[in-house]
Amino acid sequence: MSSINYSEKIPNNVNLADDRALQRALEQWQPNFLSWWGEMGPEGSHGYDVYLRTAVSVDAGGWAHFDYVKMPAYRWGIFLTPGEQDRKIHFGEHKGETAWHDVPGEHRANLRRIIVTQGDTEPASVEQQRHLGLTAPSLYDLRNLFQVNVEEGRHLWAMVYLLHRYFGRDGREEAEALLGRRSGDEDNPRILGAFNEQTPDWLAFYMFTYFTDRDGKFQLSALAESGFDPLARTTKFMLTEEAHHMFVGESGVSRVIQRTAQVMNELGTDDVAKLRAAGVIDLPTIQRYLNFHYSVTIDLFGADHSSNAATFYSSGLKGRYEEGKRDDDHRLNEHGYRLLDVQDGRLVEREVPMLNAMNEVLRDDYIKDSIAGVGRWNKVLEKAGIDFRMTVPHKAFNRQIGTFAGTRVSPDGRVLSEAEWAANEATWLATPQDRAFVASLMGRVAEPGKFANWIAPPAMGVNRQPVDFEYVRFN
Ligand SMILES: [Fe+2]
Ligand SMILES: [Fe+2]
Asked: What does the entry give for GO biological process (predicted)?
């Protein structure tokens, strides 16, 4: 089961050829996917040869094969991590029962909703990033962008397989609709807010892949615990791809900071105007981008108090991050969780049943994980002898979803009046001027081994190739 059959029209390790009706349905969806890619995939890229990895096996080590590929010919397919024998549901009311290999009737609507919501984020991010190739700071970065894009396309395939295989006609309609919505479209937008924002420049791209792809990691990790075994297995394999996306983000921001720090030391200044004149992105602007992407991303976890989240957990559809490593009863009926609330202009804690706080539980795990990487960015500043430190804002800052929607809170967690917010917003969130400045630095660097002035080269290349390898051939 773990080897992938590439001789078929749709590469897969799910014995697709044994289910003719399913195979036919997916083969009908395939050209629609390709025309979506042609229309909404990376702009102008269709003739390029790109040094990409393709999955050759779903086994833990060495699943990737690297070669030049024209992206429309990328072998998108259906890959599931091999199943465990006699796997049991390990949380919620069905704990101890055999994992489901088909969709239980009573959970059908919720499971479909979970799969569609996850599936919708995948093409959305490709749409958000589709112009970035025109301004890539190097061939190395351009290749990484394209790798992320083709893998998000494959993640869409992963969810579409589940819809086609397990949800009949409704599933096929949902799969069509996933190609119909458009990021940022007024009439037919993507489902979640952050996936309708723009990713207009490369600093935004690195922040997105650091913060928002990490939301992907946490959502997928929670689904990898699912009692619905096919969902658990498909999201497990998606997680192996997600790791690279977050690497692109973390190393990307790190390289931007490294370059800025270098120029600060060369010029002996932290003066924003002087640094901008020298063509690097000043640290306060990087911090404002961080504040934006972080706050928009933590909204993706949903309302802090949610009966849907309780149902998803209790019915065994969606677990916690690393559910299997926790040593409580995995039912949580008796557990409480402390949520933040606003009372008389102050943030206060209140205790609620943990089941109703499952979104917050996942968000808090996410927050811990994202802070770790910010610490690594600060090491770059420390090493350069610069005092500035990046921080993640308070979790109530700039929220649109849940308890804090409509409350103005500063990055350090003070509840503000509308006037205080308005007076300070431009120091906390990237302004149109910041974005225009960053945009002014963007321009394609297409010579192997050359990098735009505002970013440091990476420490090493892809797949042990040198940094000056020709990662993309434009032809
Ligand atoms: Fe993804
Ligand atoms: Fe991703």
From this structure: phenylacetate catabolic process
